[in-house]
Write a structure and sequence with these properties.
Layout (H helix, E strand, L loop, with lengths): L37 E8 L8 E4 L5 E7 L7 E6 L4 E7 L8 E5 L8 E7 L7 E7 L10 E6 L4 E6 L5 E7 L3 H5 L2 E8 L5 H21 L1
Length: 218
């Protein structure tokens, strides 16, 4: 005679190293959310006339995104494009704001109806970078939707979900012969499952711009 099991099987606990949100976190587009971790390589050309463009590739070396600057506003606007050259997001610095505020718009638009998210410093004085990210729907901006913490100089950066300790992406430095001799900055980004990786790349581009501003202010 079979007796019922008094201890029903329990679901395995999710991995602490790679928490998986129950639903895809879409900011820019559902096509950029994968049900597995996405590893991207980011190369920033340091010595270039074209204003330090980024190239983002997958683990196989295929180009996923590129970042271009505007010729008219070299330091105040960036355009994220896909491998085919289609514009995905326009990143624009909001002039005359105390907290280094940036806005991201869909495609090449800069109209409020196409706003995707806003990013600003958590505080004016910082020894390590802390940035708050507010999605367009979060108009009150009482609590941030994402937080970016880290040191750009060390290429060590973590993106968290809101005010929690849940990590959604991490950036880490990669030293290569190319980076030393050709003047290229090379680092890797791991985007956790179901997180919009185009959104994470956009955050890194803004983080780089804020770092460049700090260099010029020194």
């Amino acid at each position: 005679m079979a007796y019922p099991n008094p201890y029903p099987p329990q679901r395995p606990l999710p991995s602490a190293s790679a928490p998986m949100p129950p639903l895809p976190t879409v900011v820019i587009g559902p096509q950029y959310c994968a049900p597995y971790p996405v590893d991207l390589a980011v190369v920033k050309k340091v010595m270039t006339i074209s204003d330090g463009n980024f190239v983002v590739t997958d683990v196989n070396g295929n180009v996923v995104f590129k970042v271009k600057g505007s010729l008219l506003t070299l330091r105040d606007r960036r355009l994220l494009i896909d491998a085919a050259g289609n514009p995905i997001v326009t990143l624009r610095r909001k002039i005359m704001t105390a907290h280094d505020r940036w806005q991201a718009f869909r495609g090449e638009s800069t109209e409020s109806k196409d706003l995707l998210f806003t990013l600003k410093r958590s505080s004016l004085i910082q020894f390590r970078t802390k940035l708050d990210v507010f999605l367009a729907s979060n108009t009150k901006e009482d609590v941030c939707d994402f937080k970016v913490k880290g040191s750009w100089m060390e290429r060590s950066c973590v993106v968290y979900a809101g005010e929690s300790n849940t990590i959604v992406a991490q950036m880490h430095k990669k030293h290569t012969v190319q980076s030393i001799f050709i003047g290229k900055d090379h680092f890797n980004v791991t985007v956790y499952p179901n997180i919009d990786y185009a959104f994470i790349v956009a955050l890194i581009v803004i983080l780089d711009e804020i770092n460049e501003d700090e260099k010029h202010d020194e």
